[in-house]
Write a structure and sequence with these properties.
By secondary structure, the chain is of the alpha/beta class. It contains 18 helices and 5 strands.
């Protein structure tokens, strides 16, 4: 399903017709529906008789193959962990929430090699073949270089659609081989329409999700309200001597079946910590909270205990931690490091 706020983008894509480039890169924040748009485009390109609005008809032989997950000319390249989520019925939703699984959260070079082998033969149903790769930033350097060879010399009839929420992590040479389509957050009119149809919890979680409606919906469906309540409660009670103890509790929390089912893992927790500290910085600068409006009173009290400089440094440190959150790290050590940095800010010098 194409999100309403992406309707104009869809119209532009359809309008390209045969001028569609062989490689596109969809970039923008998570929770906007980039993957769904990429899949809709793939469906259109493979459909035998697209509708007047450009969408796949859903009835032809090609559409039936695709809907059954058996279209031989559609190649979806995602991390093994995300494939496991899709098998469980969570699909793109859980991927954009970044659920932590035992399987690899990276796109590995073996997947690109399998893709290369598959593309050496001609299309089965038509001359067109479509490759959707998401998230593109999940590739390491070896995987990215292997993909680059395909982008530099694409097999005839192939269209690559890369999806990324962090395009700066991609090789510049990959970005240069793709036509980039940047997606912005929905405007207020679109959000107002969404709120009118969204559930109570989804609307409440919109802010902590950075204003991304689909991310808020998925989080609400997975019990995000309870997760957020615990997160706030733990930080409200946190004192320096309890940082290591809380790290142990959060380790068990992230490993619990309920957290895994909700797609709530280390990347999400780090993201929430980043946004929490971002609101502290905003308050110290005389602004308003953006991500945790319901906790503005608590944040105001906490902000009085720190300084702009120390909170800003903490935010930058959390950014560094977030960049390696998908790697196979020692979960307990990461949590201890993060919470110790946070309590240091809360006991630091005031301005």
């Amino acid at each position: 399903m194409i999100a309403p706020w992406l309707g104009e983008t869809w119209t532009r894509l359809v309008g390209l017709g045969e001028r569609l480039p062989h490689a596109l890169l969809f970039v923008g924040p998570t929770g906007l529906g980039k993957r769904a748009l990429a899949e809709a485009l793939a469906a259109r390109l493979l459909c035998d008789a697209p509708a007047a609005d450009g969408r796949a008809c859903g009835h032809c032989a090609a559409c039936q193959w695709r809907l059954s997950g058996n279209h031989p000319d559609l190649h979806v390249v995602i991390p093994a962990a995300d494939a496991e989520e899709a098998d469980a019925g969570e699909g793109e939703a859980a991927r954009e929430q970044g659920a932590t699984k035992a399987k690899s959260s990276q796109i590995v070079i073996e997947q690109i090699r399998e893709l290369q082998s598959a593309l050496t033969v001609t299309g089965h149903h038509s001359a067109r073949r479509v490759i959707v790769l998401d998230p593109a930033e999940a590739m390491n350097a070896f995987t990215a270089n292997a993909l680059l060879k395909l982008l530099e010399e694409p097999p005839a009839g192939c269209v690559f659609v890369l999806v990324s929420s962090a395009p700066r992590r991609l090789l510049p040479t990959i970005r240069s081989r793709c036509q980039q389509w940047a997606f912005a957050r929905p405007d207020e009119a679109a959000l107002a329409h969404w709120r009118a149809h969204a559930g109570k919890d989804a609307a409440a979680l919109l802010a902590v999700g950075g204003g991304m409606p689909l991310a808020a919906e998925r989080l609400a469906e997975a019990g995000g309200a309870a997760l957020l309540d615990r997160f706030v409660r733990d930080l409200e009670r946190l004192e320096p001597p309890g940082a290591l103890r809380l790290a142990g509790q959060w380790e068990a929390w992230l490993k619990a079946k309920e957290s895994a089912a909700a797609g709530f893992g280390l990347p999400q927790l780090i993201g929430w910590m980043q946004r929490w500290v971002s609101d502290l910085v905003a308050l110290r600068l005389g602004g308003r909270v953006r991500f945790f409006p319901a906790q503005e009173g608590l944040l105001s009290a906490l902000a009085s205990r720190t300084s702009v400089a120390s909170a800003s440094n903490c935010y930058n440190e959390f950014n560094q931690i977030g960049r390696v959150a998908q790697h196979p790290l020692n979960l307990r050590l990461v949590l201890e490091d993060m919470l110790l940095r946070y309590v240091k800010v809360m006991t630091g010098a005031r301005e």
